[in-house]
Amino acid sequence: MRMEMRIQACLVASNATPSSSLLTRQSDMNLLFLGTSAGVPTKTRNVSGVALHESKGKGWYLVDCGEGTQHQVLHTKLTFHSLKAILITHVHGDHCYGLPGILASAAMGGRTAPLPLVAPKGIQTWLEATCAVTQLCLLFALEFR
């Protein structure tokens, strides 16, 4: 089930200075739950994934990316070209196992713009190993923060 609500948000990358923040001004954003189940999906709920969509423009941010998030995005008007950053809260599978699929879809869809990824250090190591083993070739740079 997807729920949308309007929020006032100020999204600042962890450990970022104001000049390098992903978004430093207060702006209206829509919150779209892509998954709210913990640990494992259910028949009616996907695992963790939340889209923060700017109310003006097409830009959006993905907070957590559990397995199946890519499929949930297909049921929205969001595109991987307009994805501004991915933020992973912690290294548990239900928060990050969807990353390789999202990144592969973005690459196969022709994304070339760099993509900021705010995540714990373990995510970078895991993604680099996954890309090497599966021969996942990204046409864009991942900017780990």
Automatic annotation (TrEMBL):
It holds the Pfam family Anti-Pycsar_Apyc1. GO terms for molecular function: 3'-tRNA processing endoribonuclease activity. This is Beta-lactamase superfamily domain-containing protein. InterPro entries: RibonucZ/Hydroxyglut_hydro. It comes from the Bacteria.
